[in-house]
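**Sequence with structure:**
===
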Amino acid sequence: MNLSDLKLPSLDLTASQRETLDKYLPLVVVAILVWFVARGFRKMFWTAFGLFWAFGGWHSLRHLIY
């Protein structure tokens, strides 16, 4: 993925700035995606834990044990 492949507005970038963006733009995009996924997993875990706690914890699972 090169910066020139993206349809961006006309930016007046020097060659070194364009090379830096070409080099680090994929890493930044991946880091942002990983951060959003980790945030989603964290929220999903705490929501599940809260529901488990609210509906009785281990006592609500005793029908599976006996």
